[in-house]
Design goal:
By secondary structure, the chain is of the alpha/beta class. The chain contains eleven helices and four strands. It has one domain: HUPs (Rossmann fold), CATH 3.40.50. The protein has a four-stranded parallel sheet with strand order 3-2-1-4, sandwiched between helices.
């Protein structure tokens, strides 16, 4: 049985110890308005203090609901939230790629979706470097991916898979929700239907499986999931295997 309170305390201790051992100061977190970044922000605020947590809301043709949730979360935990609008930058990317290649617009769908998290990651690291210099102490970029997303490769290479520290990567979606409830994330945020804020679809719509089914495969070998769904999940994992490692040539010794 998952003990959310015990796990929450262990994560907070993990953060405190890592920062103390490595003489670190603060953290930068991309705040999307969804539950994963909300739980990460709550955990770091409790571990480091609100004064050492900076959230970045990075709209890019984003929904007002997500912005409102991001602001509410920052006010709730008391950390600073900065807005860094990527809309014009994104639009310029698309404009130039069209000018260079004159592509079929349908061929740009994946490129358009994936450039957004890559721009966001660059923005987070930019702020981390700035704050490290300004405040005379190293700021890390925190990852917000959970175990289910990672297993099926539901992340963008060079985007949201890049981080300096991960605190949800060994937690399923239901476990993230349970931790969020324990640390006091507002109910409607921690129970918000997960979506990437990019495609207009929920995560489960895009994946074609439920997060609870992915968790079942990870924790119970899919004993409570149909064979068709199990194979879909295994297929997603295998299809995205290229995201997990970088093939590297090694010279013969």
């Amino acid at each position: 049985m998952f003990d959310a309170k015990k796990t929450s305390n262990e994560i907070i201790t993990f953060i405190k110890n890592y920062y103390k051992e490595n003489h670190l100061k603060g953290v930068v977190i991309g705040i999307s308005g969804g539950k994963d970044s909300a739980v990460v922000a709550g955990l770091f605020t409790k571990a480091l203090g609100k004064e050492n947590v900076t959230g970045i809301w990075m709209p890019c043709h984003s929904k007002d609901e997500d912005k409102n949730n991001a602001i509410e979360l920052a006010n709730h935990f008391g950390f600073e939230l900065k807005e860094f609008d990527l809309t014009n930058m994104y639009d310029n990317y698309v404009k130039q790629i069209i000018a260079l290649n004159n592509p079929n617009i349908d061929d740009l769908i994946d490129s358009n979706i994936n450039i957004k998290p890559r721009l966001r990651t660059a923005t987070l690291y930019y702020h981390a470097a700035y704050l490290s210099k300004k405040n005379k102490g190293v700021y890390l970029v925190a990852g917000t991916s959970n175990k289910c997303e990672i297993y099926v490769g539901y992340f963008t290479k060079g985007g949201d898979n890049i981080a300096d520290i991960q605190v949800l990567a060994d937690l399923t979606v239901d476990e993230v929700i349970a931790v969020g409830e324990v640390i006091g994330v507002p109910y409607h945020i921690v129970h918000k239907t997960p979506d990437d804020g990019l495609s207009g679809l929920s995560d489960e719509d895009k994946l074609g499986v439920k997060y609870s089914e992915i968790a079942d495969v990870l924790e119970n070998k899919g004993n409570n999931t149909s064979e068709i769904v199990r194979q879909r999940i295994y297929s997603l994992h295998q299809r995205n295997a290229h995201k997990f490692t970088t093939p590297t040539f090694r010279k013969n010794s």
